[in-house]
Each structure stands twice: as C-alpha cells, then as structure tokens.
Amino acid sequence: MTEVHDFPSIPAKILLPIDFSSSSRAAFEMAADLALHFHAELHLVHVIPAFPTTTFRDFAPEEAFLQEARTHAEQRLAKCQAVLASRGVSSSFSVETGNDVVENIMNVIEREHIDMVVISTHGLSGWHPLVFGSIAEKILKLVQCPLLLLHSAKPKGGKSPKEGASDFGAFENVDSKSISTEL
Q: DSSP letters of 78-105?
C-alpha cells in the first residue's frame, strides 16, 4: 500500500505581486500554472505607492487619488480573479498602500501565510536599478519561503515597463476566453 506523505515544500498559498506590466503578465501565467499544479491558492497583491505627507493638501488631493487608484486596481484584480476561476484556480487579492513596496509585500507574506512567491523583474539595467535597487532583489534577500524569480526581457526602446500605456493596461480587458492574448 502506498503511503501518502505531507510535504511541507508543496505550497498551499502562492503570492504574486502584480503591477500590471508586461513582465507581471508573464509571472501571472507562471503563478497560475503553479497554483493549478499544486492545487494551491493564488494571492495577488498590488501596491499603490503613497505620497509623502505634505502641507500642500490643495496641491495634491492625496485621498481622492489613492481611492481612485485603489478602485481601479481592485477592478483589474477582480478581472484577473475571474480568469483564474475559469481555469479552476482558487484566488484572493489585496491592494496595499505604502511608500515601501518591499515592506508591503513582506507584510502580506506574513499576514496571508504565504508558502511561495512568484515575482518578475522588469529586465532593467544601467543606473536605475543600481541607484534605486530592485524590488525583486530586495524580496530575494528577505523572503524565507521558496521564491520563483522570473527575469523579463529588457524593454524595447529603452522605456521602463510602466511608461507605455499598453503595459499599464495589460490586464484591462481580461476575459476567460482569451487568457493568453489578453494577459
């Protein structure tokens, strides 16, 4: 008779930090496949950068901007969740707000009891990651669970992945019939 073992290395909950760029689209596909394979729940997280507090409240209506960004992110994540459901993948999502994206992600890992993280790089080189650091690199140094780091190709034309409207809207029109082409 075959004995069944409970392997702690098989993830029950996978985290995918997502910024709606083309590189996070590829990570979405990989994370969905892994979640399906392991019968794991996939938790999507999007971090909205918060503005530093200022005394110029009339200059930048922070609350209105943050609420609009949160609503927009929640709508996009709900579409991603519908795609995952159509594939048979259990999922959840959260939208976090903060000045330190890495800290937000690490808090979600702890709060959600994450067993594995799938994260993509943006394929940037040169001075930007050197000066500002890489979120993926920082997560790599801090995370205590298995991590799958997907290296994306360098963006064409030297633009960062967030500069192109098509990248930012990559998850805008998601439906379950065209998963590969829409994501």
A: HHHHHHHHHHT--EEEEEEEES-HHHHH
Question: Model-level pTM?
Answer: 0.76
Give per-residue pLDDT as tens, 119-167. Answer: 988 655 444 454 445 888 889 899 999 999 887 765 555 444 443 333 3
Task: Give, in words, the CATH class of 13-182.
Answer: alpha beta
Q: Residue with structure tokens 């938790």?
A: 43
Delimit the domains of the chain by residue range: 13-182
- 147 Cβ contact partners less than 8 Å away, ≥ 6 residues apart: 116, 117, 118, 119, 139, 140
